[in-house]
Amino acid sequence: MQEKIKYWKGLEELENTPEFVRNSQNEFAEFLPVKDKSSSGKNAEVAPRRDFLKLLGFSVAAATLASCEAPVRKAIPYLNKPEEIEPGIANWYASTYFTDGDYNSILVKTREGRPIKIEGNPLSSLTRGGLSPRGQATVLSLYDTTRLPNPVTKRGEKHIDAEWEQIDQEIRTKLGQVNGKVALVSTTIISPSTKQVIREFGAKYPSFEHFVYDPYSVSGLLKANGGTIPGYDFSKAKTIVSFGADFLGAWLSQVEFAKQYITNRKVTKDNPNMSRHYQFEATLSLTGANADVRVPIKPSEEGVAVAALYNRIAQGTGGQVLNTPAFAQTKQLDAAAKELLANRGAALVVSGSNDVAVQTLVRDINRMLGSEGTTINTAAPIYTKQGDDTQMIRFINEMNAGTVGAVIFYNANPVYNHPLADKVVSGLKKVGVKISFADRIDETAVLADYITPDHHPLESWNDFEPRRGYLSLAQPTISPLFKTRQAQDSLLAWSGNNTSYYDYLRNHWRANFAKGGDFNAAWDKAVHDGVLEGVTSAGQTTTATVAPMTMAAAAVAINQTARNSKGIELAIYQKSSIGSGVEANNPWLQELSDPISRATWDNYLAIPRSLAKEMDIQQNDLIRVTAGNGKTIELPALIQPGQARGTVAIAVGYGRTHAGPVANLVGVNVYPLAATNQNGVLYINSVKLEKTGAEKVIAQTQTHHTIMDRNVVQEASLDAYRKNPKEVTEYIKVATPDGPQSPSKVSLWYDYEYKNHHWGMVIDLNSCIGCGSCVVGCASENNTPIVGKQEVLNRREMFWMRIDRYYSSDTHKDTSNLGTIETYQAMEEPSENPQVIFQPMLCQHCNHAPCETVCPVLATTHSSEGLNQMTYNRCVGTRYCANNCPYKVRRFNWFAYYDNEKFAAQNYQMNSDLGRMVLNPDVTVRARGVIEKCSFCVQRIQAGKLEAKKEKRRPKDGEIVTACAQSCPTNAIIFGDMKDPNSQVSQILRREDGERAFHVLEELNVQPNVTYLTKIRNNNLTTTNA
Amino acid sequence: MISCKSNKLYPFLLTLLLSFFTVFSSFAQGEEASVSKDGVTAGAASGAGDAQVQAGAALFKNNCASCHALNEKLVGPALKDVHKKHPLPWLISWIRNSSKMVQSGDKAAVAIFNEYDKQQMPSFALSDEEITSIVKYIEVESATAATAPTGTPANDQAAPAATDGPGGAGAGDASNYLHVILIALIVILIVMVIVLLIIANLMKDYLRGKKDLDGNDLELVDQRFDFSKVYKSRAVQVIVGLIFVVVLTDIAIEETYGVGLQQGYQPRQPIAFSHKLHAGEHQIDCNYCHTSVYKSRSANIPSANICMNCHSQIKKESPEIRKIYTAIEKNRPIEWVRVHNLPDLAYFNHSQHTKVGGIECQTCHGPIETMDVVYQFSPLTMGWCINCHREQPLNTEGNKYYDNLVKIHDEVNKGAAFTVSSNGGTECSKCHY
Q: Pick from A62, A87, A950: which is nearest to B356 by CB?
């Protein structure tokens, strides 16, 4: 027998010292004494750590108990209370949001003099109570801690605080002695009075010019249409064909177009008609996601496609046919052409291209279709973008030539957002006097000699004319937070005019827009309403007028573009959240996920799966993108279903360097990659892609792409709906002794009896366009914290409302020939050009809520009005409820997001005195370690009920709405009392019962109070939509 | 081993020590509070019996108080010891018709007239008897004011508990008697025990003196009571320990329930504003100053301009009113100390309770019209809120909001009151969101 080998634990055991023997008896070694190594190497033994902690614990406990006296809190009343302010009661002021071409008439909610929320103004016939995500979020920008608190002068490389009198004097002197042209560079100004101020200012100088450009320009559209944007009216269009125009997104007038678009998209049994929307585009946009028919095309093919459509329409209407290359995807184009011709007078073609040639063809297509006067309101052209690329390029060249003596930047940041930023920087060195009105030291302002910060729009008076004859006013809703001055006042002061801009504005209105009668009364009404419509206005003259292009020239240009395309094409686009990047320092907008990719806090290279496979690129791989103009950037790849083959796309608005701690170095700046020629900027380019080998993870809020054939979202074709509305929605039945039954018939629980109210919500998936307005509205109403990129990556985003986006898949369970596992894997893959469906997802306020039954401390309970209540002060943070929630809508506070340095930069609304002013004082800021979730805006319900009780009546329908329902520009979300048989919610539920109304995960029988309506698509190309 | 034991013992001792500290400190706090609640009755009690003085007091309040106070100059002079300055007949004729006296050239009358900017005191058609009673009242008041330390209410830390009322005071007296009796009894008992011990010892000594004792007696004489045995006994140790733990736990629980409770909290305010004077004596409506109490969540602490509605005319020279003037001049708002502090997690709306619920301010704020310095009357705990919501019938009268609800309720629970909670008023989201 082989002798067993003995292993020693160590030399100690081998030697078997007495010490070792003693220690081996002791399972647990004695605590190591803590040695203070720093104390001059003496190895001085200090108090053992645990004892120290024990002591500490006791003394803390003792101290807390002993100091249980609450701290003295002060109650500080007004010294002289303004008449209109009652503490605790909100005041509303009508105003206007116009930034970056996005126009919204707004109502500003102020509490104790602080704006805390913005909602749409229903009196405006343009935006009709809707509000874009950026409009919602601007209230937070007001309290941006990065704003300049006073004017500054640049001395060397330093910015020195200055006084207004001193800086005014210096600027006046310098402008008086200026040698060369005085230039004012701005983005689009739609304020008639401001334009008048600028004209007056310019008249003081022998050589003055006002240059207008837009960061994301539509100057091609302007040039093709005589300097203004045609007054598109989507509400009159039965057939809409869009070539890369993201009209529901950031293209021109997001909310206005969404309101118009949706009027023809709501279907009922009695009116089963809807418009049909064709979208030809490179990257999957918000608009493309809503289209009935979407065709991915390369940017260079856009002109060809438009020309092909032009030829078909020309043939149909007896016009001249152009000689342009053939377009490959004829099936959809033929269908579109056929339908456009069938719907003459109710047809609309739009294009997002910045190429004059393409836009000229589009203009003529619309003319041939008789759109002018019907789907294009010729009396009310759109003014929200007026920038002229050619002019701006001329300005940059003039600066470099040294003929510009002074430049004033107003809402303009070309060093960041112009493709020729390098030349702007080099040109600025040759300009003697550089002044910026920027509210912060941005990329351009940092090079200026003087920064005279403008007020935030919520602190200013102003007027706007977004469309001819539609006027709108902005009024201050808070007295200026800082020592800033409105730009118009500065210009007036420098031109030696002593009137304030407010008086100037009033005088301008008195002179130009008074309809006769008492002007003061009319003015007061306009200020109160925020809008004045039906005004005979001279219109706005824009500089972008050029001689119209001839058809032949256009055809030549299009042929040229098509020929020039080679390699991979880059499409540069705008996200509806960040836009051109002006408000990038707004954390609500950064954390609002992209409607399609669901990515936050970054831009990325959207590439089609085919290209990713070809180049072996995985999601998050850092890719080096080299554009045709030699500019290079590196950014992570995101595999984007629906991205046209051979193309990639990158969003502008990121990569700011001087915007503030939220936006700085988030993503990369893609403006320099845009191609420029003598005519302007084209937001396309050919690029080369290289893998860097590195990785940068994109924070997406949703990584699951398809619904795997579950009934979570439901959709049907319009044909099926017309045939039998009762068959468009699949209802799940469970087996019972009495045959298949609806799950609600089989229940373990007793039903609640609602005597007073029963709050409910209906979400029409057919109307939801996925814009994200509700998400920002909810964040603003309910004080949800912003967590930043890392926490989004950790799946800890805190928005109560999310919009789930699902792609369709080519593989289906019942039709697949693959094995089970392979089938499921294939079902996870979205199609190459998927259909997209959006589903707003929030707490469903289940009547048989799974969360309520598992809470060990009864922190989540059911109310007698159908609400699933969450009581933060009772919650101990077990998270059982979140685990048991089938909809995954409960959010856990992993950190204290307030007063926490870790989140100070991103979540400044809870971490700075200034930011905290935006918090809704009626809603608790949740502490660390508790669950939170949608409350159905219980504070608004309570306030509405109280108002009714005070007036001794029942609440009226529509009086009590949640923030999300209020913000929705397409009225996809309807909230109301299901107990009230006449409420809109009850009516819809009665109407749609058994047809489109369904509950998500109905088989679980949790009986939600949120009902969804099946999406209907008008996508059968064999029937012509007329 | 020893060191190990001491390690365990140390924190234990520490706990004991700390718990003693907390217990005693809380006792101390309690005592302070109770002290401040006594001491009020003294002023009111003296001379309460005299009917004449009472009549005088009423007359003074109705006729004189708007311009005169005892201790300070208002519109007219302070009236303390006025009976010593002027003889009664002079006072009578002055009160009846001061201008006549001034015109007649009465020296004292002219002096007063000139001193107060030739402002005339209105004539009062009061009988001799009535005027005498007023003077009597002033006499009595002057005397008490002289004995009791004078001062503005804010300086008077002992002011709060005028609220205890006669019932409370009576109960306090009774318990005082009980204490005395108890202490007396204990003293008597101790004396008796000592006496008995002495007697027993004497008897023992006597027995020892005797030689012929039998076994039983001897045992009795030799018996020694060994105290050390008692406290070394395990049973006693355990019992004492248990009692200690139980008492300590009880106190700890009591105290923890009281943590953060501020009932009776009566901070000193920057300006000695008296609700007793304004709301009590002058009967100014609460809503006059607390402008949004029927409209808003917050009742609104009045801004200085509301004070100035009256005080631009009245009592302009008072040092307390001067503070408001100073605040306005310096453009710095007055920093009142908040008395009623609800935690941030609880939403409370005044208008819901006042306008809709029809609840009196006093229901929660106590007899505010008798408070010189406001203190927190109610505990403002959740239990207190909920209790009221359970018991309080809803104010549904004439409110169409409730009509149908009342009908449904009455059909189901005949007779039971339609309380706040039967309308869902105890659900979490009514106050927490």
A: A950
